[in-house]
Amino acid sequence: xxxxxxxxxxxxxxxxxxxxxxxxxxxxxxxxxxxxxxxxxxxxxxxxxxxxxxxxxxxxxxxxxxxxxxxxxxxxxxxxxxxxxxxxxxxxxxxxxxxxxxxxxxxxxxxxx
Length: 113
Hints:
Blueprint lengths: L35 H6 L6 H14 L8 E6 L3 E9 L3 E4 L4 E3 L3 E6 L3
Antiparallel strand pairs: 1-2, 1-5, 2-3, 3-4
């Protein structure tokens, strides 16, 4: 004695569904992340602005928090031995309370912990 169960309600679809066809990741792009050793080897291929951008990108995408990583920042006027707190539009904020313009930075090196 098999009873016939009622059918499940299913609405009709009037248009095709294209969910999740393309995903955007803002932290990824086509350029690979480069560590400090590779940047030192390729000094002639990259200008200063590109090297600084690549090192900052590497620091912020690293595992852990950027403010735990000691760095040495050389600018046109001073050398900072500090930790980076944040990056703003055109400047870096350090844990020491300094504001460093990105255009003044000559190099950034990650120091040993």
